[in-house]
Amino acid sequence: MESRIERLCVERGLKMTGQRRVIARVLSQAEDHPNVEELYRRASALDARISVATTYRTVRLLEEKGILERRDFGGGRARYEPSESRRHYHLIDVETGKVIEFEDAEHDQLMRAIAARLGFDLVSVRFELFARKLGGPSRQAVRKPRAGAPREAEPSITR
Amino acid sequence: MESRIERLCVERGLKMTGQRRVIARVLSQAEDHPNVEELYRRASALDARISVATTYRTVRLLEEKGILERRDFGGGRARYEPSESRRHYHLIDVETGKVIEFEDAEHDQLMRAIAARLGFDLVSVRFELFARKLGGPSRQAVRKPRAGAPREAEPSITR
DNA sequence: CTACCTGCAAAAAATTTGCACTTCC
DNA sequence: GGAAGTGCAAATTTTTTGCAGGTAG
């Protein structure tokens, strides 16, 4: 059966090889934000005739076609998720690396207003919150996390 | 004369070698967000007895001490700026790569509220706007930019 | 004096690419 | 049939590290 991502590929006129079909299926089923290595692992479990190089080439292609979106949650590897109609953002639990999605209309609007105030038209946004569960481990016991993308917290591949 | 960053280093008990002093001075004078390569170039112009390895080791150390902050504006290289008391964010002009700093108290507050709503305590934030000057090149003529960190726009090292 | 620094070059880690060989349309 | 896709391994790019000397405090 044709997966959602595969359908999108066909709609945009991509040549559908066996490899691409498998990767599309894996992406359609993913409930998380896998990196390329993980994607490759899942795809080659379904069909061994797939290489990492092709996985890289495919995600890049799908990103260019607007079918996938690349994310960076720190940890030095790109992560991917299917484009969705609803704009959403991510909160990364710095203790566990777990990724939580959320929406916020007020924020959407505020960003546009900020860009306009500076004389710009918004093209894209990067917005990630790194946070710690309330009532978690005592502040004292935990080493201070870094600004931006914490280097030490390799985010788990979870949505 | 002792630079601002050098003073901070001494305050935090860092052993001040010649190399560190030079890098500290370069950072104090920087009006932009240099990457390590650029930092190394500027430092070794002042004193040739500095290696890239030391530059990497030094920025990492200063980041751990909270003296520097690492940023990622896309383009695959980390960029650095001295920590400032006022929280601020960055807007990257996708046409020119130029980086514009801005503050927004409303946004500061909104982020904290969002984290709290999800049951988290904010640790750090990544927030960058990628945008295009109003009244710039016609939409049609410009290739569609990607979400997240545009791959093609190597940000210039400018504040 | 000695723990910490540094330079050099080699190692890592993630991603891209050249090339000869398939494969979709 | 021909343009486009693929695998493999080598190349790239950015950052880190091991080791044999230096150097600050």
Per the principal axes of the C-alpha atoms, what is the gross shape of chain A? Answer: globular
Which stretches of chain A are low in confidence, meaning pLDDT under 50 for 5 or more residues running?
139-147
Supply Rg of chain A: 18 Å
- Count every beta strand of chain A, where a strand is a DSSP E run of 2 or more residues: 5
Query: Major sheet of chain A: size, sense and barrel closure?
Result: 3 strands, mixed
- Helix/sheet category of chain A: alpha+beta
Give the overall average pLDDT of chain A. Answer: 87
Number of contiguous helices of chain A: 5
Order of helices and strands of chain A: HHHHEEEEHE
Strand order of the largest sheet of chain A: 4-3-5
Q: For the largest interface in this structure, which chains are involved and how many residues does each contribute?
A: A-B, 46 and 46 residues
What percent of residues of chain A are in strands?
15-25%
Distance between the termini of chain A: 25 Å
How much helicity do the residues of chain A have?
25-40%
What oligomerization state is this entry in?
homodimer
